[in-house]
C-alpha cells in the first residue's frame, strides 16, 4: 500500500498537477477515427479538459476548447464550415488554432485572425485513432501507427492507474510511461497496446489496438508502475519553468 498523499500525486491529472503535466508531454488518444465525421463536432474530455473535435476542409482533425470564448456557449451546437467551426449563438468562426476569423473589406486580403480565441491543441490521426498533444514546447514524436489494427475504446469508472495495474495479470504485460500497457499472449506474434487516458480523477478511457509488428515487449513490470511514475513526475517538475505562483 502507498500513502494517500502519494496516491493523490499519481491519480490527479488536471492541468497544473504534477502527473497531469507529465501526461501532457505525450500524445494522448482522444477518440476513434470513426467517431468523428466531417459534418458534426465531437465533444471529448481528456485530462479534465472539455474539448471539441472537428475536421477541417482536408478532413484533418482539430481540437479546441468546448465553450465559446465569447459567452461560453457549448460548441457542441456549432456548425462545421470550410474554414473552421462556427458558434451558432453569435456566429463567431474559429479556425483550427482556436483563433477567431473575421472578414471584411477593411482587412488586408479581406480576412484577419484575431488574437482572441480559446484553447486549441495539435491533432494527428494514426491507426484509426485521433491523438492530441496538450503540452508545452515542441511536439514529441508520434506513435508509429502503421501496423495498428482493430482499435477499440472503452470507458471505465475508475482512475487510470487502477486500470493500468488491473490490465495485466501475467509477466507478459509491461508498463510504458506515462499511461500505456503493452502485452502479448503466449505464442502470438501480435501485441496489444492500451492507452489508459484519464477523463478525470475517477474515470478513464482505454484505447486499445493490436499491433501486427512482432516486436519484443518494452517498458517496466506493472509492479513497478508507482515508482516509475513518481520518478518521471520528478523529472518533469525539475524542468518546469518557475511561475512565481508558488
Structure description:
This protein has 246 residues and is mainly beta. The protein folds into two domains: 127 residues, no CATH class; 113 residues, Rieske Iron-sulfur Protein (3-layer Sandwich). The chain has four helices and 18 strands. Strands 13-17-16-15-14-18 form a six-stranded antiparallel β-sheet. A hairpin with a 7-residue loop joins strand 15 and strand 16. The protein starts with a helix and ends in a 7-residue tail after the last helix.
In short:
The protein contains 4 helices and 18 strands. It has helices at 4-11, 18-23, 160-165, 225-239; strands at 28-32, 42-46, 49-55, 61-65, 79-81, 84-86, 93-94, 99-103, 111-117, 120-121, 123-126, 129-132, 148-156, 173-176, 180-183, 191-200, 203-211, 220-221.
- Domain module count: 2
Mean pLDDT: 86
Distance between the termini: 30 Å
Helix- and strand-based class? mainly beta
| Weakly predicted, low-confidence segments | 241-246
Order of helical and strand elements: HHEEEEEEEEEEEEEHEEEEEH
SSE diagram, text form:
Elements: H1 4-11, H2 18-23, E1 28-32, E2 42-46, E3 49-55, E4 61-65, E5 79-81, E6 84-86, E7 93-94, E8 99-103, E9 111-117, E10 120-121, E11 123-126, E12 129-132, E13 148-156, H3 160-165, E14 173-176, E15 180-183, E16 191-200, E17 203-211, E18 220-221, H4 225-239
Antiparallel strand pairs: 1-12, 2-3, 3-4, 4-10, 5-6, 6-7, 7-8, 8-9, 11-12, 13-17, 14-15, 14-18, 15-16, 16-17
